[in-house]
Amino acid sequence: MTTASTSGFSAFALEPFPDFQVGDDLVGTITGVLARTNTKLRDGDIVVVASKVVSIAENRYVDLASVTPSPKAIELSARTGKPAEIAQLILDNSTEYFLATERGPIIARHTLGYQLTSAGIDRAGTDGAWLLPADPDGSARALRDALIAFTGVDLAVVIADSDGRADRRGATVISIGAAGIASLRTTEHGGKRQEETFTDLIAASAGIILGQRGRGAPVAVVRGIAYTPSNEGVASMLHHAPRR
Predict the structure, then answer these.
(1) Model confidence, pTM
(2) 53 to each of 56, 65, 81, 137, how far by Cα in Å?
(3) What does the pLDDT look like over 20-39, one tens digit per residue?
């Protein structure tokens, strides 16, 4: 699927964004920020939402006191220095893993089909952890439907997550859910065709200003990018199908 080319685009955070807690309405919070800041979304905008705020909205919290580490988790903890309870959650939410170095990080294939550092487990202080949304593409579709109903504009939604690379230090941002936009695109130049993970490129561009980069802003808008509408989601471009 070939997408029209883009010669330039802009991106901005929705801020100030209130401290988001379990039980809060994510759509209501986003639309509240739009109203308070007099921000008008436009047709073709891509709303990029950090996965953690989606996990909070869906109450994907795990109390580590409820996790009993297995011998395998205790061994993995000893090798990597991660708490044994976190190691157990990584094992519970993945189908396989490897260590990027002798001491980690742990690169795991999530049961949803993604390959992620620590299976996407996000620490919540010393006592808890956040799991990924149960169905990120479904979460993106629900957000998109609600935002279209509120704004009346035709937009797309991408759910973004921080992730490391096995070959280098540091983290980047990838897409784990999408709605209203094709996750893959094919570009063509000089007779060469290249398939690209398009929603990953969008997530990474928004990641520069999202909250995990030191800003209290878990939602960004990317404007001016040409894309093909689709509801197939990020799952459509994965090599490994989700295990439900």
Answers:
(1) 0.94
(2) 5, 23, 27, 15
(3) 999 999 999 999 999 999 99
